[in-house]
Amino acid sequence: MAQSSKLGVQALVDQALAEIETLSVDEARALHGRDDVVFVDIRDIRELKRDGRVPGAYHAPRGMLEFWIDPDSPYHKDIFAQDKRYVFFCAGGMRSALATQIAQRMGLSPVAHIGEGFSGWKRAGAPVEDDG
């Protein structure tokens, strides 16, 4: 028998958006480069290689995010234990909405995501560097 999805991805994203802070590209640009803010790029490594990256952004693949945030995980990364604001982004804003929601539920605070994602960042002429 074929599987039938009970809750679609758009419904999950909509639920996340109702719980988290969404930044415009202009709002995110105003935070970029500040010492008290960490930009977290959750895109796949192939996306970074193909499309470039936000200068100074920390790459945390979406599949490892919960493990890297949890201080009790053997995979924990110290960057997620700092007293800073975390701004997540993906290519278009859907994955980062879900990532921001889970980071917030795990206790990371304050957190937000870029609603238009890296695509919107790049379209707006915000700084981008090659990942070569």
Describe the structure.
Strands 1-5-4-2-3 form a five-stranded parallel beta sheet. The longest helix is centred in the last third of the chain and has 12 residues, at 94-105. It contains six helices and five strands; from the N terminus they run H-E-H-E-H-E-H-E-H-E-H. The chain has one domain: 3-Layer(aba) Sandwich (Oxidized Rhodanese, domain 1). The mean pLDDT is 96. Helix 1 packs across helix 5 (94-105). Strand 4 (85-89), helix 5 and strand 5 form a beta-alpha-beta unit. The chain is globular, with a radius of gyration of 15 Å. It is 37% helix and 14% strand. The protein is an alpha/beta fold and 132 residues long.
Task: Give the helix/strand class.
Answer: alpha/beta
Taking the alpha carbons of the first and last residues, their distance comes to 46 Å
CATH architecture annotation: 3-Layer(aba) Sandwich
Shape: globular
Helical stretch tally: 6
SSE sequence, one letter per element: HEHEHEHEHEH
Mean pLDDT, all residues? 96
Could you give the count of β-strands?
Answer: 5
- CATH superfamily, called what? Rhodanese-like domain
Task: Please report which band the strand proportion falls in: under 5%, 5-15%, 15-25%, 25-35%, 35-45% or over 45%.
Answer: 5-15%
Total tally of structural domains: 1
In this structure, how is the largest beta sheet organized? 5 strands, parallel
**Strand line-up in the sheet with most strands:** 1-5-4-2-3
CATH class: Alpha Beta
* Share of helix, binned: 25-40%
The low-confidence parts are none
* CATH topology group: Oxidized Rhodanese, domain 1
Q: Please give the radius of gyration in angstroms.
A: 15 Å
